[in-house]
Amino acid sequence: MALADAQPTIRRRPLERLARRLHQYDEVKHAFDFATPIDRSRWYVCPTLTPLYYAPVYAELTKLQQRRYNQLTALCFSELIAFFETTFIPSVLAALAASRPAASDDLVQCLQHFVMEEQEHTRWWRQLNRLSEPDLYAKSENAIVRLPAFGQLLLRQMTKRPNWFSFVFWVMLALEERSLEISRRCIQLPTEEIEPRYLAIYRTHLSDEVRHVQIDWHLIERYYAARSATMREFNARLFRQAIRSFFLPPTRSAVCVIEHLINECPELKPLSNKIKQQLGEVSTDSGYQQMMYSRESTPITFALFDRFPEMHQMRYVLQSYQPQVGVQHDGC
Question: 221 with 79: CB under 8 angstroms?
Fold first, then answer.
């Protein structure tokens, strides 16, 4: 069987269908138990999603150390998700209201609902972190993630100009497909191994993000596909650099997780340099790259890479990507 034949058909849902069903989601009320103390004897996230899992030194950690590393990484994930849902996504969507030509009524409805759901998600992640580590999050919502002020300023400026910097919609798509993969892997763990509040939120987040990925696809159609070849190439270069520098390798946040772990487990100090060195090397590991971005974990993103010739250069950034020229998906 040819590789192209082995890939499932990927379909883009029409905007009118997405908008027509929004009221159904409004009727669903989510209530999570943020009162019962967290169960620290379990994983907070699937271990295969954590960067250090792909480093040889991971096997040198005790089971207790591995579990605590897992829990701290989950806290970091929650901070990062909340950051992008409060800073990155709303600023992009707010810019759409002032963009010309005016967006369709269906798109506006979808985006308004999108923002509302992302705000709700942010509340979940932050409440979950406070429940997990009340002392750590007593004064700040960001105890692990520290983003440079210049980087935050640059991001805000770019996301306010989607007609020029349409690569931000590619970033949204890639990150939200990654979020789907996080939820899928966590849901597949044996129920008794993962903390029940985390599992409940991953399940709910999964259903919402499926719709959001579809909306991201429509945004790429509107603000990227319709632009000139020169503008697409410019934004493809920006996207490649963003993935290569910020969204593929373990960054400063992953190192902060290690520092928190060593502070809590001082017996790991002799391994500190080794852990950080190997953490910095996992971005070239094939298993890590497959988990992060692949046709299995980010199928829509890869299908759209195939469609645009300028995106075929992603094969030089992602080991798991090879263009499939001629493969056609519904809506691509």
Answer: no
Low-confidence ranges of the chain (pLDDT < 70): 1-9, 23-29, 98-103, 326-332
Instruction: For residue range 47-93, list pLDDT tens digits in order.
Output: 999 999 999 999 999 999 999 999 999 999 999 988 888 877 777 77
pLDDT number for residue 255: 96
* Topology given in CATH for the domain delimited by 48-316: Ribonucleotide Reductase, subunit A (1.10.620)
Tokens of 326: 């001629």
Residue 190 CA from chain centroid, whole number = 23
pLDDT at residue number 123: 92
Asked whether the beta carbons of 10 and 299 are under 8 A apart, the reply is yes
- Short-list 161, 258, 271, 162, CA closest to 218: 162
- pLDDT, tens digit, 9 for 90 and up, residues 250-266: 989 999 999 999 999 99
Q: Please state, in angstroms and rounded to a whole number, the distance separating the CA atoms of residues 276 and 280.
A: 6
Separation between Cα atoms, residue 68 and residue 65, nearest integer Å: 5
User: Which is nearest to 209 in space by CA: 171, 180, 173?
Assistant: 180
Residue 128 is inside which H or E element, if any? helix 105-132
The model scores a pTM over 0.85: yes
Instruction: For the chain, give every domain's residue range.
Output: 48-316
Q: What pairs with residue 194 in β-bridges?
A: 43
Q: Shortest CA distance to 213 belongs to which of 300, 297, 303, 292?
A: 300
Residue 65's SS3 state is: helix
330 pairs with which residues across the strands?
A: 11
What distance in Å separates the CA atoms of residue 233 and residue 237, rounded to the nearest whole number?
6
> What Å distances lie between residue 147 and 29, 173, 320, CA to CA?
33, 21, 28
User: Residue 103 to residues 31, 97, 98, 219: CA-CA distances in angstroms?
Assistant: 33, 8, 9, 10
